[in-house]
Amino acid sequence: PDLIVLDEPTAGLDPIASTALKDKVEAATVAGAAGLLTSHIVSELEALADDLVFLMEGQVCFAGTIAELKATAGYDRLDRAIAHLMTEQAR
Question: Which ranges of the chain would DSSP assign to H, the alpha helix?
Answer without folding.
Answer: 15-30, 42-48, 66-73, 78-90
